[in-house]
Amino acid sequence: MAKHDPTLDHLFHALSDPTRRMMLTRLARGPAAVTELAAPTGLRLPTVMRHLSVLEEAGLVTTQKDGRVRSCAFQPQALAPMRDWLEEQRKIWEARLDRLDDYVMTLMKDRTDES
Amino acid sequence: MAKHDPTLDHLFHALSDPTRRMMLTRLARGPAAVTELAAPTGLRLPTVMRHLSVLEEAGLVTTQKDGRVRSCAFQPQALAPMRDWLEEQRKIWEARLDRLDDYVMTLMKDRTDES
DNA sequence: ATCATGCTTAGCCATACCGCTAACAAACCA
DNA sequence: TGGTTTGTTAGCGGTATGGCTAAGCATGAT
Please, which positions of strand C sit below 7 A from a protein CB? Predict the structure, then answer.
């Protein structure tokens, strides 16, 4: 059970920006060069590069240069920690609902005993 | 298909901070007052209040005052847009894999035709 | 050899974020 | 009433973020 998990920090932070989500969605369809990635955003290249490095930092994207072109690829397994975290929260929440349920049942039983 | 979805922005941003995730995990176990929520963080109250309002902004938490104590409650349905987004990405990715698969099959067929 | 292409680096600017203290307000408690 | 508990507001300081321009560098095309 991680107390401080910088992985989740980076993941969630990377996804909190619409431009970065747009870039990621594009990359989910297949690899792309930086310029190609930048085009639909309407942003300048240095700006896009920065977004790209945030995505790399989060492990969501890997890149490699081939010639003068940098090719970027989506890494779907990087989303796993997020799914895991969601699942963990869901379990905690449902355990709570179960306890609530037990409690309500107890109340009903008490009422039955009284009658 | 949302182009700019501030909901996702707020959601992911809210979850990008370990303190806020800790608070949320605590609240998943059941409602709590602000002070109770602050205790395990080691942070001052105003700081925690700020985190709390970020969580509220994202819809992840609702609060209400009764007496002088503010009670905070987790809102699990607020996580739905995130699940949806994840699912959307997964679909795009898998569609891509399917296309890749088709392509490989085509290549194999060509090789077979050649032999 | 020259030029165009595709990044890449450096650095500026405005705003947002995350922590804090200090001071105030509104319950509740004795 | 007077004190304690529980928020709440205002505002400060340092850092991070997200945009930009300008200039540099390496590669590919002519």
Answer: 5-11, 17-22, 25-28
Report the C-alpha gap between A28 and A74 in whole angstroms.
6
CA B24/CA B11 separation, integer angstroms: 12
Interatomic CA distance for residues A7 and B14, integer angstroms? 15
**Dist. CA B40–CA A51, nearest whole Å:** 34
The answer to whether A17 faces chain B, any CB pair under 8 Å, is: yes
B42 inside 8 A of chain A by CB: no
Protein residue closest to D26, using CA and C1': A68
For each of chain B's 115 residues, which pLDDT tens digit applies? 555 789 999 999 999 999 999 999 999 999 999 999 999 999 999 999 999 999 999 999 999 999 999 999 999 999 999 999 999 999 999 998 777 766 677 777 665 665 4
A60 C-beta neighbours (distance < 10 Å), count: 22
Residues in CB range of B107: below 8 A, 6 or more apart: none
The answer to whether A13 contacts B12, with C-beta atoms less than 8 Å apart, is: yes
Nearest CA in chain A to B10: A16
Residue ranges of domains in chain A, CATH in brackets: 6-76 (1.10.10.10)
